[in-house]
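Hi support team,

I'm opening this ticket because the web form for multi-chain structure prediction keeps timing out on my end. I have pasted the exact lines I submitted so you can reproduce it. The total is 1027 residues across two entries, so I didn't expect it to be a heavy job. Is there a limit I'm missing, or should I split the entries? Thanks in advance, R.K.
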Amino acid sequence: MLKNYLIIALRNIKRNKLRSLVHILGLSLGIAICLLIFNVVWHAYSFDKFHTDSERIFRINTVTEWEPGNLFQSSATNGPLGEVIDEEISLIENKGRLYTLYETMVVIPEQNKVIGRSNKVAFSDPGFFEIFQREWLSGNPERALLEPYSAVISEASLKKYFPGSNADDVLGKEILWVDAADSIYAQVQGVIMDYSENTDFFFTDFISFSTITKKEKEDWYGLHSWSNLNTASQLFVKISKNSSNSDLDEGLSLLAKKYLNEEDSQTKFISEPLSELHFSENYDDTTVSKTLLNGLIYIGIIILLLACLNFINLETALAINRAKEVGIRKTLGSDRGQLLLQFLTETFLFVLISTVFAVFLSDLIQIYFKEYLPANFKFSGISVLSIGFLAMNALLLTLLSGLYPAFFLSKYQPQRALKGEVIAQRGFSLGVFLRKNLSVLQFSASIAFIIMVMVLNSQLKHIHSQPLGFEKEAVLYTNLPFMGERSKRELLAERIRNERFVEGVSLSNNLVSSNSIWTSDAYVMVDSLEQQLNVHVMNVDSAFVSVNGIPMLAGRKSHHVANEILVNRNFLKAMGSPEPSEVLGQTIRFGGEPNIIIGVVENFNARNLKEEIMPMVLVYRPDYYYLLTAKISKQQNLAYAKQRLEAIVEEVFPYEASGFNFIDEVLEGFYEDDRKIQGVLGFAGAAAIIISILGLFGLSSFTIAQRTKEVSIRKVLGAGIVEIIALVSKQYVWLVLISFALAAYPAYYLSNIWLQQYAYRIEMPYLLFMAVGIGVLLLALLVVGFHSLGVANTNPAKVLKSE
Amino acid sequence: MISLSNIDKYIESRFQRTFILKGIDLKIEQGEFVTLMGPSGVGKSTLLNIIGLLDEDYEGMYDFEGKSIHAMKEKQKSALHKSEFGYIFQAYHLIDELTVYENIETPLLYRNIPSSQRKSIIAELLDRFKMVAKKDLFPEQLSGGQQQVVGIARAIAGNPRVLLADEPTGNLHSSQAKEIMEVFKELNKEGTTIIQATHARENADYGSRLIEMLDGKIDKDLAL
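Hello R.K., no limit was hit. The queue was backed up. Here is the completed structure from your submission:
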């Protein structure tokens, strides 16, 4: 029986090529997109699932209400909390402390070997390894991280630091880790295996936490007080069985009451499940936004539904062609269930063929989106995971798209079906109603997607055309060691300044525009009243203004004197807009000391364009400089300049690997997420319109062919080709218009949410909405016109004779 | 075997009832070869459909072997339909996507007959109707007469006791029609009850009983 079903399904697929093409193209596109999205979502949720009792592991977060209603949540915890938490809260089985380091220099003193800088170094206590269990290649898990100046390295580090050595051989060996100004010599006390599964705990070098809880180091690492918060300081706990998240939070709030004084009362501690870590703050800026993931899931579902709708639509429209077969089979003894099964088998076959195509297609799409995907994301359309998904998906899809047409077809009455009496339905017909509305839904989704992409496009274009208040062309920067030697830094600056193609060099603590921000309070006298201003602080040298091409409104550049300060135009605005020259010489209290305004600069966008320009002060604190910015002359070949500058840096700082980058790349980086959204939506929009147009192509070819007789009669009665095309196309104009009406508001609503995050944004481009609507209408008419022209051109004599 | 009493079938429009069948009383015994005759639209096909359980939208009593059709459940009706009736149509109504062999096989599939038995039944039928060489052809590759022969083979494959034929020769020229009628006669001789609707008088001569219909009623009932 099944063989018979399959045979007839295959022959039908071969026979009606247009129908098969529409179905397989649409379905495989939908399945491919879903397969990819499923893998991406699965990957994002796969992090740190493998730890023993992972559902009992929590990270402690700190929430501060720094302004009423304005909460700041951070994964950081202060030092003292890490000391007392397990004593105060009894349901905590284990605590694990972690203190992450940034760009730590690794040196093997014994061999005089400099390994280079690493972000995979952290301080941790033995509890950390009790919570996050490891396989130990050597050393004693309980004792290895107990004493100060002991360390545990992973197998990856072992191979890198001591090539050829066994895990047992390196016990007791000394490694030097240089964190900015602190040099730590520690002995290897254990070697552990690296995790093989997806994890955010990628650290390879662990130094005992007791090394930094010593009195003289606590200050430097910021672990001394209840009020000091440092993102590097992380605290994990594992709670006992039978206790819950809320028990832990309750304990934490009691603890906060006990230890925090009045002033800190806006601060509280909450627990964050380990499973959330990959979505909130992890250690290499690869967190995934759940909103984005959900957006992807919605897009996947919408595209797949569109493909299903195509299927349902076309199958019900083509049902008349199958009516005769249904009639015959019923007279031969088939019952309705067997017919249902037959049509579902046919649907399943379509889904199966499409699934095979989808595996190839998803690989192509994946290549297109390569840069959007996480670095360790490996995609295969034929992995166990993918095949499992595809199998489930195939079943679901078969039911979703096959059930309605199958019911529709199998309910035909045989004696009527055999006479061809199936079209004659009077009054309301669910089939026709559904068919029209499904097409409307498809076009609505396509139009909405396209409008959103267009709005994103224009906003991003708008951003690129905005003047930023500084020059971004031919400006390069590099990172220098943080808290390194000042003289060495200045020597390097001097050497670069002497290159003939360099127009200026500036040392600073921040780039002219970046994602980082230092805000502080400044106090200034306005009308003999001291006024407090929240200001954006830039710590830069005197060359900064000219190197970045920022116009001066009044005064002069600094002379490298600590209490001289520059302000921007918005600072004056906050003071009540005095003339720039009037404020020169005025005193600002900042950082507890009086500073004198010696110059005023024009406003410039030191952050991305989602934010307004804040009142700004430019101060001189040369000890913290770690960025070097160089302006290259316009005629110079930039690639050469970059190479030459990197060579100079390598001479002065032989162990620093960081090269030179262009400022405009930093600026591009601000909107990377938005460009990803644009790319994904663009793709979704393209897929949606392809599927919809494909559906319309199949559907109209069929419905228009049905009107051949009517058209012929009209031609005989004297209708011209244009009139006939207009007649046949009219209903499709309505279809697109209704779809547009349905799509406009959701598209407006969603793109408006997105636009609102920009301080510098375009007006909602209503004309663009219209343009998209008209574009889709034209596209639809083109497709329909293609078919209607065919009908309009048939010879009426021939058609009417055969009737 | 088949007993119809007072069968009415009508179409209701807003102001009037149009009767297609009115007050049909008819008994048909096993082994009869009945011909329903009359002009187009007189209700022959409708009566055939009612007898063959394809149309349930009528009033009156229908007993099959003494059992009332109305009292039967859907499942029993379906079983009766499968085991007792075979259909032959004027337009042959073969499934275009299936070969001759597969077309004949289809009713056997719906009767859950095992594969080996199916093969022997089909082989026998192909042999009997001299279609062995054509078993892998599709309907569109056959002449009208050949298609109708396949239609008959398919109708009797399930070994029904009653064969219902609606204008079986309507689309055929006279020599082909003759062949088909010979086949019917032979089947009747073997014991199959045949009820055919036709408006060709010469076809009635092959049968044992002629029922002439007029305006939805039985006009004459003659034994031949």
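A quick check on our side: Chain A touches chain B at residues 1, 4, 7-8, 11-12, 15, 324-325, 327-335, 338, 413-415, 418 (CB under 8 Å). Let us know if the file doesn't open in your viewer.
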